[in-house]
Design goal:
The protein has about 150 residues and is mainly alpha-helical. The chain has six helices and three strands. It folds into three domains: about 5-50, no CATH class; about 50-110, Orthogonal Bundle (Arc Repressor Mutant, subunit A); about 110-145. Helix content is about 60%, strand content about 10%. The protein is flat. The N and C termini lie far apart (about 75 Å).
Amino acid sequence: MQNSLDLWLPSGYPVPRHSELRLTSFPQGGNAMPLRQRVYDDVASLFGVLAHPTRLRILTLLHAGEQDVSSLRDALGIPAANVSQHLALLRSHHVVSMRRQGTRIFYALRDPRVADVINRSLDILDDEVAAGRAMHKAIALVRLKA
C-alpha cells in the first residue's frame, strides 16, 4: 500500500521528517490537502526570498564564486549590516551556505539550480520584451494611414 504522502508530493520532493509535518495524521480517506498547502507555501516563500533586487545581486555575485561579507559590501555599495541581513535570510531558506575561516565568513550558492531559476526568469523577461517589440511592429502595420 502506498504511503499517503506519496499520493500528494511531487516526484522527487523530499518527504519531511515526522517532526516537520504540520499534520501528523491524516483523517480517514487520506486527505493530505494541508500538506499540499505546505508545499505551495514553501515554494511561495522561496520565491519571496528571491524576489528582492539586492538578494538577486548577491546571488549573481556568489554564482561567480564564494565571497565574504566585505567583498559583497564593496561590490554592492551597501552597508555590511544590510548585506548580513540579506545573507541571513538567504541562509535561513537554504539558498546559500557559509564557511568560517578564522574571523571571516564566506558564503556560496548552496544549490546551482538557483542560477537556473534566475536564468529562466531572465528568459521570460527577454521573451516579453521581444514580444512587445513584435507587437508594436504589428500594430504599426495594421494602423490605418491618413
